[in-house]
Amino acid sequence: MELITNFLSGSVQIEAYLGLSLIMFFAGIYGFLSRKSLLMILISIELMLNAADINFVVFNRYLYPGHLEGFYFTLFTIAIAACETAVAIAIIINIYRNLNSVEVGNLDEMKE
Amino acid sequence: MDYSSFLQMNEEFSLLMVMLFLLIYDIFAGEKGSKYFQPIALVLFAAHTLLNCIPRDAFSIAGGMYQYVPMQTYVKTILNIGTFIVLLQAHKFLNEDANRIKRGEFYFLTLSTLLGMYFMISSGNFLMFFIGLETASIPMATLVAFDKYNRKSAEAGAKYILSAVFASSISLFGMSLIYGSTGTLYFSDLATLITASPLTIMAFVFFSVGLFFKISLVPFHLWTPDVYEGAQTNITSYLSVISKGAAVFVLFTLLTKVFGHLVTQWQPILYGLAVVSITVANVFAIRQQNLKRFLAFSSISQAGYILLAIISGTALGMTSLVYYVLVYMFSNLAAFGVISVIENQTKKVLMSDYNGLYQTNPRLSFVMMLALFSLAGIPPFAGFFSKFFVFSAAAQQGYYVLVFIALLNTIISLYYYLLVIKAMFLNKSENPIEVVKSDFPVKLSFVICTLGILLVGLFSTIYDQIGLLSFGM
């Protein structure tokens, strides 16, 4: 309850944000390693990228409020992440056309 | 604000002009003009290479975002020559009926990855570095998945993009921690601000994953064999030489410039990575039958040798690193060139297919032999000298055990390189690969590679010239 009121009045501890971004980051890593569908893997990667973005914004806002470096970095990162997603989705669609499936288990053509 | 200082980015602007010209030419050339597309592209790129091969004085523009030191010209020139050779080798593949329509895309994507590497090399800020890294790796994924109707190619593309983005997002998280602990992202400021606190060490470990992935060192190498096998062979050679060469140079400058205060932390990390990379890759290379996978593991172990130059962190290390990349480029591109020529015509990539290659294709097997001797480091060829300099750079800093392990591994690597040579020259075969015809650009690329392998080691001026500039780094 206190957290919510703090959030509304604008005085959240920096630790809360950093904890959030850490949880997002490692959830992303876990998802990347455990998910079976290529799309879910892509979503996990997006989680990781966004965790880093949150870090940048929070550090900038709380620790170095005079500068804008972190904000700019985040803007660029979002744009780059969009490109990555576009290319990855295109490749996944291509895989779907070739295999009729986007499961990781089917990508075993080149196994030893 | 005065933007004229941006014009100092000669290399980037001239490459961008070549790219844009080719893109527009490809769209508007029509039936008649498209015949001349590749010759024009090759001539333009050669002109770009020649125009930008003379080092200038160091400068930094855009408030330190872009930092130029003379050494970068040599590295960029090496990358240019390598790209030129790859484009020559891809000439025939792109002239086939199925691929003719995709020529423009191939050139544009290849050159845009090169542009990304330029920015990565010259970056003076983590933002610039990250943009360069991604500009180098996103078009690369589309290149890997270039053959839309080939299942292997699509599979390799997915593996490449997903693991590349995974690595770069870990790297990005590391950058955010660096920003959090120091408050700046400029390399020049970070050099003094970074101290060995637990947070910065963790940030460094996260950050370096992105580069280790690009260089494909051993715990980060799992994508390499599959992607190398699935991608079209010319793209594989580009991936194994150009992309790796740019990344090792950047790793060296970052470690010495930005993470200079963490030297006691990163030296053991690199030590372990070098030992593991060389050994594991060698052991796996022995049992490969597919030559592209075989060269993939060979290139991982070569990356391990390059780490010996990085770990020294000295000017000698820098010189030997650039020299090693130069020699490695010639040898690896020659080997991949032979494989691609043969694969394009006969679809054969297995080692057993190469039995008796000497009877039918003596010249190709000769080039392949030179390349493999150079990769293994047999004395008269350039590979021996590059390995020698790398070892001496590491030994100068007292890493005798590491050099000894690397030397033992060269013996193992000699075994598997000789397996291919034995298959080509000694093994008899009932139906050897037919006589392979190659067109003029491919022949020219083999001539360049052969001259490079034979002469770069013998002309000491090349090494001295690189050494002259390495003190500024």
Order of helices and strands of chain B: HHHEEHHHHHHHHHHHHHHHHH
Number of strands of chain B: 2
Question: Portion of residues in helices of chain A?
Answer: over 70%
Residue ranges of chain A: pLDDT <50 for 5 or more in a row?
A: none
Radius of gyration of chain A: 18 Å
- Specify the structural class of chain A: mainly alpha
Mean pLDDT of chain A: 86
Please provide the ordered H/E string of secondary-structure elements of chain A. HHHH
| Main sheet properties of chain A | none
Instruction: Please provide the count of β strands of chain A.
Output: 0
The percent range for helix content of chain B is over 70%
CATH fold-level name of chain A: Helix Hairpins
Mind explaining what this structure looks like?
The complex is a heterodimer of chains A (112) and B (473). Chain A is mainly α and 112 residues long. Chain A has helices at residues 2-9, 14-34, 38-62, 69-99. Chain B has one domain (4-469). Helices cover 75% and strands 1% of the residues of chain B. Chain B has helices spanning 10-28, 30-33, 37-51, 71-95, 103-122, 126-144, 151-182, 187-193, 198-215, 223-230, 233-257, 263-286, 291-312, 315-346, 357-360, 362-376, 382-396, 400-425, 440-455, 460-469; strands at residues 59-61, 66-68. In chain B, strands 1-2 form a two-stranded antiparallel ribbon. The model of chain B has no long low-confidence stretch (mean pLDDT 87). The A-B interface holds A 25, 28-29, 32, 38, 41-42, 45, 48-49, 51-53, 55-56, 59-60, 63-64, 67, 69-70, 72-73, 76-77, 80, 83-84, 87-88, 90-92, 94-95, 98-99, 107, 109-110 and B 126-127, 130-131, 134, 138, 141-142, 145, 148-149, 151-152, 154-159, 161-162, 165-166, 169-170, 172-173, 175-177, 179-180, 183-185, 225-226, 229-230.
